[in-house]
Amino acid sequence: MRPILMKGHERPLTFLKYNRDGDLLFSCAKDHTPTVWFADNGERLGTYAGHNGAVWCCDVSRDSTRLITGSADQSAKLWDVQSGTQLFTFNFDSPARAVDFAVGDKLAVITTDPFMGLTSAIHVKRIAADPDDQVGDSVLVLKGPQGRINRAVWGPLNKTIISAGEDAVVRIWDTETGKLLQENDKEVGHKKTVTSLAKSTDGSHFLTGSLDKSAKLWDIRSLTLIKTYFTERPVNAVAMSPLLNHVVLGGGQDASAVTTTDHRAGKFEAKFYDKILQEEIGGVKGHFGPINALAFNPDGKSFSSGGEDGYVRLHHFDPDYFKIPSI
Amino acid sequence: MAEVMSMEDIRTEASRLDIDLSVVDWNSVWVPPGEDFGIKSDDEDLHEDNSLEFDAGFGNVIVVDNLPVVPKEKFEKLEGVIRKIYSQIGVIKENGLWMPVEEDTGKTRGYCFIEYNTPQEAELAKEKTNGYKLDRAHIFAVNVFDEIEKFMRVPDEWAPPETKPYTSGENLQHWLTDEKGRDQFVIRAGSDTEVLWNDARQVKTDPVYKRPFWTESFVQWSPLGTYLATVHRQGAAVWGGASTFNRLMRYAHPQVKLIDFSPGEKYLVTYSSHEPSTPHDSHRVVLNVFDVRTGKVMRDFKGSADEFAFGGTGGFTGVSWPVFRWGGGKEDKYFARLGKNVISVYETETFSLIDKKSIKVENVMDFSWSPTDPIFALFVPEQGGGNQPARVSLFQIPSKEELRQKNLFSVSDCKMYWQSDGEYLAVKVDRYTKTKKSTYTGFELFRIKERDIPIEVFELENKNDKIIAFAWEPKGHRFAVIHGDNPKPDVSFYSMKGGKVSKLATLKQKQANALFWSPGGRFIILAGMKGFNGQLEFYNVDELETMATAEHFMATDIEWDPTGRYVATSVTSVHEMENGFNIWSFNGKLLYRISKDHFFQFLWRPRPPSFLSPEKEEEISKNLKKYSKKYDVQDQDISLLLSEQDREKRKQLKEEWERWVNEWKTHHNQEKTERQILRDGEASDVEEEYEAKEVEVEELLDVSEVVVPDA
User: Fold this and answer.
1) Residues 6 or more apart whose Cβ sits within 8 Å of residue A52
2) How much is the mean pLDDT over chain A?
3) A265–B553: do the CB atoms touch at under 8 Å?
4) Which of the residue ranges A226-230, B5-9, B299-303, B552-556 has the most confident prediction, judged by mean pLDDT?
């Protein structure tokens, strides 16, 4: 079907997230207002005003009542999804980047960037059931990795946190003790910055995308490499279909070089790969800048992409898509 | 060969010694002289050269012999004469001229030493004045001081050289005996140079040989494919062999920049250009002609760059390459060079000029050999403001006879195109219009093999069309022209058959600016390079139909394999993105693509010409069905095998994946209750969430009362 072009952001997109029911789509961009859209027709539902910097990441609670956002204004904010009111602000001394609710939505992980001599850190915050009881104290702070941590998510049963970032290493941390449990095997790991990380629906495996022009599929428990998907350009965003064995990679040449070459040279397509065979199936064109964010609707029947060009494109699959033979 | 340490060993050793390898500046590491730590350098040449320079250190001193013997009174006069001669060539060091005298008589001894600032000047002085006639009795014998010792060591009596027992060499054409009839190619990407088979049936490459830092600038196949030449600081080398690539020969030529093989690959011409010793001099160039098999220098040419920069539009530092153009077919009999008002033709039997003199042609601009015969065509531009017409002439060698000449008027430029069998010559002539403000293009077509060499004038229908590209069909009678002023030009095909040029077809509005004929003729690729971003149209000229159109985005290079079965298109490192190459079948089906970052070169290994007679070839193409049967069966077998393998692989991958999924499922189920607790007992897993419930909703849309009349 013809993609729905969702205009609303004024700056490059940074992140996209569907709620669990798949009826709402949350988008973050470098303009300071995360936005919520109807995931069906792309109508804009509302914005969350209050941040004073680029918003890098967001997550929505299971019951779609709370939204958490991480921003370059050195804060992470909790919002009421329905009313758009700010419930709480976690303040940091450096920009916040990745945010993720734990299973049960009682904990959240927030990463902060290296800034003014501070190293990057992973903070675990308790999320109170009643916003009035909310406190800003960290339950746990993890430090160690060099460079920015671009993404951190919870492992199975909230026992672990998986992080990845500029140093190209995927790490698993113990959430009880705060110890580093595992780093990925250097031989098979990414060679350049890991830009994105997406968990499978059941949380059993995850996909990382990297500027080394590849995406890798890992087991979330053992951190063994399962698959590698090679592409021709740096990968900025990854997503996995919850329905079919497909993965989607988005990216393109560096945004600073875009204006110097033909638009086709940038490879701003969202590329579909067979998850098992690691073969390219097809691509979806449209953006005229690198793709920075990708998300699949939980029903697997549509996906959306956010680009450096400031647009979100919402694609509902044609019936033909579901007939693509797998193996 | 000494034991070679692997990088791994080095790393362990370094960590043992507590050295951080990443901070070691390797260029600052010096091995004590004469010590190699048991690692033999494989460059013995280099070693010898160095020892010469460093041990003696008199490379800048020359010895001039055969001077007149003069008494004391005339000493100063002689010294003055010598100083005058030698200071013209370079700067003589202070007290750098020393003429020894007999102690008792005070007479000179008939020789002197001159010390220059640099060895280059000394070398030049040797070249220029060795054999200089001061007068009839005194002919200078000049040598570099370092070499004297070498000459002293020559034994007075001739001893027969030892005869080495004959060892049979490898079959250098072994690659032609490939059972599957595949072709090889070489690629250069990053620091690696790699030779691969094009296994098109299995749609992949098959490695032959790979070596990092094989060459220091580029690689080049010899014209018949026997050798692969690499270029290094010390000279060039050729590689080849039956099973792998061994170094067969080296050609010492310091700082070699360019190389060129003769068409029969008997000789190799190497070129280097050197910084001048004094700023007002021009660059000095050195050209060596080597015998490829023996490695012997057959002739060397030295001079200033200006002498060799004549003609052409100027390639490498002003010299148009190749300086020497080889003619006379595959026998490598003649080579020629364009000079000012002359064409110098050398023959390879003696490596001297034919008849000891060059052919004088006033103002000659360009010349071009026939690919098969010892004939060349030359072009002389208009002179005297149009009083003397421009001229294209054909010369035969060695007779130097002018076979044919054609005068042309108001010409701005000429380009010559030979057909690959030397049957036709097309001269593209750019003429001025009457106003002299613009030019238009026509062709003069020579039929070389016919009696008296008839010439035909050929113009496009719209003679104002700009000619973008011209190409003869290899081994054929047709040619293709891209012409037109539109952003999308037209492509036309013409035939020389039947005594007259006849048009076959014109294709309108094509995105093409380059023509690539298949080496077997018949098929052609109309390519849109650069501005057209790599548009490809595969065209069959026999049937006059397009077989396929495709695109290799940003393609910079296109090359047919020597058999005309496959085509390689590549994007080299002139672009930052998309580097790599695609292999296509002759009819435009993409077989496979390989991406390589920092991709520099793709070259098919040429094949020597077929030994089959034209009649035999015709017979084969007539009975192609019979011959192809065998290969069809093979093809089918392979495709069956491939699909079988593919299925196997897919099956295996799928099983592997299912194992993972099952494992995950068990984990997931085991953790189910725990997850439920984390969620305050909320039923957790996604599947249970989506329960299809059918809900019937009745909605009252409209109520209207209608009075039913009594029956």
Assistant:
1) A32, A71, A73
2) 90
3) yes
4) A226-230
Nearest to A204 among B533, B653, B664 (CB): B664
Contacts of B592 (CB under 8 A, 6+ apart): B203, B204, B205, B582, B583
C-alpha B538/C-alpha B525 separation (Å) is 5
Do A315 and A307 contact (CB within 8 A), yes or no? no
What single string gives the DSSP state of each residue in B304-369? EHHHH--SSS--BTTBPSPSEEEESGGG--EEEEEETTEEEEEETTTTEEGGGSPEE-TT--EEEE
Which residue in the set B554, B653, B674 is minimally distant from A276, CB to CB? B653
> What size, in residues, is chain A?
327
Residues 6 or more apart from B147 whose CB is under 8 A from it? Answer: none
CB < 8 Å to B653, chain A: 276-277, 327
Cβ density class B415-442: b for 16+ within 10 Å, e for less: bbbbbbbbbbbbbbbbbbeeeeeebbbb
Chain B interface disruption, residue of A159, A269, A285, A327, most B CBs within 10 A: A327
Instruction: Name the residue among A299, A239, A311, A314 with its Cα closest to residue A275.
Output: A239
Q: What residue in A sits closest to B530 (Cα-Cα)? A: A262
Q: Under DSSP, is residue B661 helix (H, G, I), strand (E, B) or coil?
A: helix
Among B650, B675, B686, whose Cβ lies nearest the Cβ of A201?
Answer: B686
The helix/strand/coil state of B77 is: helix
Of B577, B595, B657, the CB nearest to A265: B577
Categorize the per-residue pLDDT at B48 as very low, low, confident or very high, splitting at 50, 70 and 90. Answer: very low
- Give me B636's structure tokens: 């089918």
Comparing CA positions, the residue from B166, B171, B211, B167 lying closest to residue B192 is B211
Q: Minimal Cα–Cα distance from B652 to chain A, Å?
A: 10
Question: Closest to A156 (Cβ–Cβ): which among B554, B576, B671?
Answer: B671
* Minimum Cα–Cα distance from B553: chain A residue: A265
Instruction: Give the confidence band of B317 by pLDDT, cuts at 50, 70, 90.
Output: very low
Q: Both tokens of residue B515? A: 């023509």
Distance from CA of B676 to the nearest CA of A (A): 8
B668 min Cα distance to partner chain A (Å): 8
Residue length of chain B? 711
Burial class (CB in 10 A: 0-12, 13-18, 19+), B76: exposed
Strand order across the A235-240 sheet? A235-240, A246-251, A270-274, A280-284
- Report pTM: 0.69
Q: Which residues of A make CB contacts under 8 Å with B?
A: 62, 102-104, 106, 156-158, 201-205, 219, 221, 226, 232-233, 245, 253, 257, 261-262, 264-265, 267, 275-277, 298, 327
Distance (Å, rounded) from C-alpha A127 to C-alpha A100?
11
Question: Is B554 in Cβ contact with A201 (below 8 Å)?
Answer: no
Q: B5 falls in which pLDDT band (50, 70, 90)?
A: low
Residue A81 is predicted with a pLDDT of 93
B-chain residues within 8 Å CB-CB of A103?
Answer: 675, 678-679
Distances (CA, A) of B639 to A226, A324, B196, B199: 29, 23, 21, 13
Each residue's pLDDT tens digit, A19-44: 999 999 999 999 999 999 999 999 99
Q: What is the dihedral of CA B190, B194, B200, B204, to 10 degrees?
A: -60
ipTM of the complex: 0.82
Contact call for B654 and A327, based on CB within 8 A: yes
Residue contacts between A and B (CB atoms, under 8 Å)? 59
Q: Report DSSP state, residue B466.
A: P
The residues, any chain, with a CB within 8 Å of residue B707's CB and separated by 6 or more, are none
CB contact under 8 A, B678 and A157: yes
Chain A neighbors of B678, CB-CB under 8 A = 102-104, 106, 157-158
